[in-house]
Specification:
587 residues, six-stranded mixed beta sheet, 30 strands, 33% strand
Length: 587
Amino acid sequence: MALQPRQKRNLRKTLITITVLAVVTLVLTLGLVLGLRSKKNSSTTSSSTSQFSEAWNSPSEFVLSKNFSITSTPTVRSYEWTITEQTAAPDGLARPMLLVNGMFPGPLVEANTGDRIVVKVTNNLSKGTSIHWHGMFQNGTNWMDGTVGVTQCPIPPGQSFTYNFTVPNQWGTYWWHAHSQSQYLDGIVGPLIIHSPEEPQLNNYQEDIIMMVSDYYHTDSSSLISWYLSVDSQGTEPVPDNGLINGRNSFDCTLDSQSLFPTGLPCTSNAPKAEFDFKAGTTYRVRIINTGAFADFQFSIDNHTLTVIEADGIDMQPVDVQRLPIHVAQRYSALVHANQTVDNYWVRATMNTNCFNVPNPALNEFVTGIVRYEGASTTDLPKSVDWTASAWAPRCLDLTLDMLKPYFAQPAPDADVQVFITASFQTIRSDHMNLGYINETSWSPLPGNATIFQAQRGVTAFDPSQLIVTLNTTGVVEVVVSNFDEGSHPFHFHGHIFYVLGWGDGAYVPGKTQLELTNPLRRDTSTIPPFGYTVIRFVNDNPGMWAFHCHIDWHMAAGLMIQFESLPQDIKNFQIPPEMAAMCAAT
């Protein structure tokens, strides 16, 4: 008996065992096909960290320099990146990864609002790639958004492409990642921080640090996608093997054989965790970014209250929490006061396993890092205890709307256009593959093309795999997203900040469902509750082809994406660099 699509976790043990055995067999076969080397597991319980080179992971990248000048005078920030395949061991298990300049996570991009960011990307992989600048408006440079199949074709192997765009009128915490296939799961990811003298909390902290949290898979994403997009998975998403904070964590190597996808790769237990130096009396701005594929996290620091001041690049009225839920692609900033006894404290990023359909016996969902106060032991593990309040909810949801209020208040503008979309998983194809659908369309990238080039030529009848809403005039668009799935979906809108007017269970009833219109939350990634709805509004004033998709990577690969064609007459006048068309011809 096979595992049924998207079946809940109250499965009998025998069903899980059969499923795991089937998965293991499939992955071993995929490994042979892909030429992955299966090496003898070199598991050890040694606590030595001597073999963990700093070459691929630089903790200093996550501490923002005091020497960076926050100014309103714009400048050009130039970077040169080379993407290669290398072996790295973020948690002690050595696996092939895709690294930018040999680093995981990749290099920090830091700028001021108004600056121009120029990044030359050289692709030394065997497949095409791209970089998406998550949260950037790209107003006037839609073709720099980096979304394969929408705003560009992949950068071909052995070739380079230069992203060149400005960042006016926005600041906060962002990130960059590959937007080709599922490559960011394999390492093409990094932080993007934009400063401004206008930030309201700028003088209320002395230090500025980044904490990137993510789920982590020991099997390469191509193999996992191949399995997930097959009838064998029956819609069950791959469950992570571990989690990371700033690219680091430990893994019990003896559990590799129990994983849903055993690797047999070299592994050393007790790999080092991420560590953060605190000084008593100092206030830290902690920028938390979920750069994972699937898992919703609850973030906390033992004994330290988190004062949330930013969500997805929008300043918030300060609100104190002990735990902070953060779904895939979301970002928060929190002020943390180093006001506790000089000691070591656990940083916790705990996965909400309620949102996984099957267990992974190898997974320790309690991901941790360490805060070390100046004067405390530099080697002892923390003895701090977790907050006792706020038990896990059975679903993956955001902070409530009444908790997140923008610092700079804006009422929601009246809507000129209303768009209704549904998100679901269906097995309506003849091959019975379980795919994601927005309305009745399951998205897949166009081979050797992108919808921006078609729109520039004036195409109005797009491929059936492209669900495109055309918005011909400037105005306010209300989008009602109804989720017909049992899982939550963190939807991200490229090129825009939107107003989150409301979300809830069941169906949205126009004119009856209560909405927040006075000063609603504004952000770029919002979680649609299971079997529920979310209502958003955005101002349609940014010409281009803009993706709106679930940021759970497995779901986007399965087709949960829609595009908004904003102001098509302006798109026809885009001056797209000619080398971008050449990239399409080469793929």
